[in-house]
Amino acid sequence: MKKIVGIAAAALLGATTLMSPGSLAQPAMNHGAMPMTAEQALSDGEVRKIDKETGKITIKHGPIKHLDMPPMSMVFTAKDRTLLDKVKAGDKIRFMAVDEGGKLVVTDIQLAK
Q1: Which residues, in sequence order, are CB contacts of 34 under 8 Å at separation 6+?
Q2: Confidence (pLDDT) at 37
Q3: How many angstroms separate the CA atoms of 64 and 71, rounded?
Q4: pLDDT per residue over 82-106, tens digit each?
Q5: Beta-strand runs (E) in the chain
Q6: Half-sphere exposure for 89 (CA within 13 Å, toward CB)
Q7: Among candidates 51, 40, 55, 54, which has minimal Cα distance to 96?
Q8: Quick one: pLDDT at residue 32?
Q9: Is 48 exposed, middle or buried (0-12, 13-18, 19+ CB in 10 A)?
Q10: d(CA 35, CA 40)
């Protein structure tokens, strides 16, 4: 009889583990794998300085979610120097930055609306 009770207890424990709240919920989504729209990928910022000669732009920005970067001010390289013709110091912008081999590069700049 003790053997049957032990087996039943083990079976009940196993069933309880299988039916834990996390296992009954819908499968977790990997949001990092979901494609972002272009609008979602843009980050907010303010142009602090532009150096057209070197193709650099200093931006005080909010979080850059797709790069897991907190708000800060930093210097980026413009992918195309003509992007720097669109803005001036003090402009509020939305921009796209990417990591190209450890170098942060701005690939798109738009004036904020």
Answers
A1: none
A2: 57
A3: 7
A4: 999 999 999 999 999 999 999 999 9
A5: 43-51, 56-61, 72-78, 92-100, 103-111
A6: 7
A7: 40
A8: 47
A9: middle
A10: 10
Terminal Cα distance for the chain, rounded: 76
pLDDT value of position 57 = 98
d(CA 85, CA 95): 14
> What pLDDT shows up at residue 41?
82
CA 26 to chain centre: 23
CB atoms within 10 A of CB 88: 9
Amino acid identity of residue 37, one-letter, is T
CA angle 43, 44, 45 (to 5 degrees): 120
Which residues sit opposite 51 in a β-bridge? 56
